[in-house]
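Researcher: If convenient, please comment on what follows.
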Amino acid sequence: MFRAAVRCGLGGTALGLVILAGFAFIGVPVVPTVTKPPAAALLTADDLPPGFAPETALSGPAAGDACAALLADPAAGWDGAVKRRYRQVGTGALVWEAAARPAGDVLADLRYRLGSCAFVVQRRPAGYLVEFTGGYLVAARAGRTVVVLRYTGPAGAPVLRAALAKVAALT
């Protein structure tokens, strides 16, 4: 009986080592936890009024106080966020946009942080709008995708309509 127990123990150990070696050779499958937002969620230069051209999105933390930094990059810290920036030649109008599929309720967190900066947060279907001197910020959710857009410059209504149409098309 002792020999049977030893044989069983050695057999189990050998099987465990074979399985371990197999995963070491093949690799353990990893389920991604961060997914990129669909490209359809983001604006392109064709969606914007004439004269807008892509610019390189700024990297690194924004300068200024916490509220200025929040307006500069509302999606800071969101895993998998895709950010784009456009400037209109002649007017200097700037469109900054980010889309992500973050975990948790980032819209509620962003709304709270904007409210603590004394911005008036206006509710909109699937999101909200914040107006500030010289522009606005709009945030919305379509399914798992969250889109944030900041506009500074004159006559921002066409940009807002284009962004809302993109978000509506995701649903």
